[in-house]
Amino acid sequence: MGTGEKERKKNRVKFSPSGIAGILIRKIIGVHKKYGMEWWIMIAGIIIILFTVYMALFPETLSPFDPLDQNAGPQLSPPGPVNPLGTDNLSRDVLSRIIHGSRTILGIAFTAAVLASSIGITLGLLSGFAGGITDRILSLIMDSIYSFPGLILAITFAAMLGPGVINITLAVSVTYIPTYFRLVRGQTLSIKEEVYVEAAKAMGAGRAVILARYIFPNIIATVVVLFSMNIADAIITEAGLSYLGLGLPAGVPDWGMDIALGKRFLPSGSWWVITYPGLMVVILALGFTMLGEGLAELLNPRLIEK
C-alpha cells in the first residue's frame, strides 16, 4: 500500500463522524475536569436556550395547529392525543400557542437586553473615563432611575407608551440601562488608573482608542455574564407586563398573556391553560440564569489561571 493511500485512510478516520464525535466528547470531559459542575450547569442552560430558539425560528416544524385557530379542538379540552397540552377557552391549541409564543418573548427579551446594554455600556464608559461634571450628571440620572423597583418602572413606561411590541421592548430595556451603567462605570474608573492605560496616554493615544483597545476588552467578560442574567430577568418582566394587560395587543401569541387569560379557568379545573405557559417562562428564565452562572464561574480569572 502506497504512502498516499495510507494518508487518505488516516484522514478518513480522522474526519469521520465517529472520530469527530470522539474528539468532542474527550474535549467536553477535559473541560469538565477543569471547571467542574459549573460546566454542566452552563451546558444545561445552553440546551434549554437552543431548543427555545429553534421553536422561535422554526415554529411550523413543531406546531400542530395555527396559534390563532379556534377550531383546534373542543373548548377547554384537557391534554390528549390530538391536543397534547389541551385547548384554551377559545378552542385554540395550547401547545401551538406556546411554540409560537416563544418567538414573541425571546424577541422582546433579547432586543431589550441588546438595547439596554448598548446604551448602558456606552454611557458607563464615557462617564467613568471623562469624570468631572459629565460623570456627576450621568450618575445622578442613572441613580434616580435605579432607585425605582424594576417592575414598577417597567409598568410605568408600558402604561405611558401603550401596548405594542416596540413599546414593551422599550419599557423593559429602560429598567436595565442603569445596571450596565453602574457596572461599566465602576470598572472603567478602576481600569483607567492601570499602568498600561497611563502608558497609552503618554504615547499619545486618543480617548476613543484607549476606550476601545484598553478599557472595553477588560470588561467584556463581566458584561457577557450580566447580559445573560439580564435576558432572564427581561423574560419574567415581559411576562409580568403581558399578564397585567400592559404588553401586547390581543391576538399575538404570548406566554404572559396566556397566563392572564387562563387564570380564571383554574378554579374550574382547567389547570393546563395556565400551567404550561407559566412553566415555559420559568424554564426559559432558568436556562439563561444557568448560562450566566456557568459563565460567571468559567470566566473567573482565578479559574482560568489554573
Cα shape: elongated
The tally of beta strands, per DSSP, is 0
Which percent bin holds the helix content?
over 70%
Low-pLDDT stretches: 9-15, 302-306
The proportion of strand residues reads under 5%
Q: Summarize model confidence as the mean pLDDT.
A: 84
Structure notes:
There is one protein chain. The chain is an all-alpha fold and 306 residues long. It folds into 2 domains: 1-35; 44-304, MetI-like fold. It contains 14 helices and no strands. It has helices at residues 3-14, 17-35, 37-57, 94-130, 132-146, 150-161, 165-174, 177-191, 195-202, 207-215, 220-243, 255-262, 272-298, 301-304. Helix 3 (37-57) packs across helix 4, helix 6 (150-161) packs antiparallel against helix 7 and helix 12 runs antiparallel to helix 13 (272-298). The chain is elongated, with a radius of gyration of 24 Å. 36% of the residues are buried. Residues 9-15 and 302-306 have low confidence and may be disordered.
Helices and strands in order:
Blueprint: H1 3-14, H2 17-35, H3 37-57, H4 94-130, H5 132-146, H6 150-161, H7 165-174, H8 177-191, H9 195-202, H10 207-215, H11 220-243, H12 255-262, H13 272-298, H14 301-304
Helix pairs in contact: 3-4, 3-13, 4-5, 4-7, 4-8, 4-11, 5-8, 6-7, 7-11, 9-10, 11-12, 11-13, 12-13
Short summary of the structure?
With 306 residues, the protein is mostly helical. Helices cover 72% and strands 0% of the residues. It has 14 helices and no strands.
Q: What structural keywords apply?
A:
306 residues, mainly alpha, MetI-like fold, 2 domains, 14 helices, 72% helix, 0% strand, elongated
